Amino acid sequence: MLFNKFFASVLLAVICASTGLAVPWPSSAKLATHRVREIKRGLTIESFHPASKFETFGEGIDHPFSRRAESSLSDSAKAFAASKMGVDESEIGVRSSFEGEVASHAYLQQVHDGIPFANAVANVAFNKGNKVVSFGTSFVKPNKIASSSPTVLLEDAITSAEQTLDGKFNGHPTSLEFLALEDGSAALTHVIQIENDQTGAWFEAFVDAHSAKVLSVTDFVTDATFRVLPINEELLTQGFQDLADPQDLSASPIGWLSTPSSGNNAISFKGDVSQTTTPSSSPDDFIYVQDPNQEPTVQINVDAARTNTFYIVNSVHDFTYKYGFTEAAFNFQQDNFGKGGLGNDRVTISVQDSAGTNNADFATPPDGQSGRMRMFLWTFTSPQRDGALENDIVVHENTHGVTNRMTGGGTGRCLQMTEAGGMGEGWSDAMADWTEKNSSAVADYVLGQYVIDDPAGIRSHPYSTSSTVNPLRYSDLRTLKEVHDIGEVWANMLHNVYATLVGAHGWSATARTDPSGSEGNVVHLHLFIDALALQPCNPTFLDARDAWIQADVNRFGGTNRCLLWQAFASRGLGVNAARHQDDFTVPADC
User: Fold this and answer.
1) Domains of the chain, each with CATH number or no CATH
2) Lowest mean pLDDT across 32-46, 79-93, 168-182, 223-237
3) Which residues form the catalytic set?
4) Is 223 annotated as a binding residue?
């Protein structure tokens, strides 16, 4: 989802301090472990995730199976996690794993009586030398744990979830999982997916298997030749181009199209999945000229919207694929060609969706279920404007799918807390920023100008290296509570990281198709994608920063370490930053 600043003018929107701490925890401490969601009028649900501990190990450390030539990734990860946490391997299960270009990753779950925990998880990464380079964990030691035999029937749990969440069970396979609670206990829960077709809500409900109460939810929805707007251009006014065969066959080996506006990576439609755009001429030409003087709903403009979103989503698929968001890394494809991960999950794109206006959203369920993008009309101009024709909005929404899948091993559960959800918004803005750079100049970046016809866009400040233009820094999290506001802090940090890397290494015009270069924008996207797989479930700013720095060690031997520290520290995320208090220092050797 996109909005913060703009709607602020339209809709006015603790962990207790320990006596043993020299500096009290700020009220913002709950940002990392809690998220309150208003489900409907009069009902809010507060979700909890145990605090993650994340460590990085530079060039790597040995693990118990280091010298075993035949040990599997899963076995090595379990052995390391067990030794690190002092638990028996029988208490650890493997949720997923994959081998990337420079690191291999395993995603683990705490297990009791053979039943996994939903929110007590861990992740281990190994470099190509078979050494552990990072470890994250939110495992718990419950003071009380519920019986592993449910006393509430699944049918009754489904009814409770449907009534509480105003939706219907969507038929996705249910599961039994323990849920670590804030009071230190662990509840047994039925895990059930609930959808509301009218509102677009899509929840994963955790229903107490002994009381039928909904204890927590995962909200899968984050509330933002072709004639198209080229992906490196943000605004409709910059002009359409006719692009012939824009697919990258190394990422999309059977191309983009199988039927009109439908293919292996995406399908774009209005109203119903059968309502796609047919070629304007034979065999596969989609030349639809948007008419800005007519309403978006006239046929030529609907066709332009479907064509443009289909192009952008496929483009994002292809360039993120080349940087590591592959089948094995839980991407979105109907057919995974036997390369790992689960298929049958291309992105569905509903343009001019009737469920809302003045926004956009993306739902990211687990690997194997389609990502769902909904693009809405914007009503602040006459004629109205279509978010499907503003590329930064489409890229922003699509990136929610990338970050939610790659963080935590494809579950869609690991950017749910307030701070992590805020970074999710920030990554989405940062990816849009990256796609629209067309030279080595790092200009200030503004999101969402076209849809509201305002050069200031929909964020509180442009993203900028100037602290005058954009003063946001880490300590602002002490007062920010809304995910889009928090996201602006993270996106601006990444804008500064990008500027630093491009300033040091230059800029590549072919970065989207050639990830082998050494230029700053190439380095930036490699670290962007690599760090997602390294960081723990529901990371903090500190965790994400450390993941970027470790990613640089894994891929580039730490060449950019000081550059990264300088960029993060310039916005308060220096070596000694903690508890949302700024620090501007860098390591002594930098």
Assistant:
1) 53-137 (3.10.450), 144-219 (3.10.450.40), 226-401 (3.10.170.10), 415-589 (1.10.390.10)
2) 223-237
3) 397
4) yes
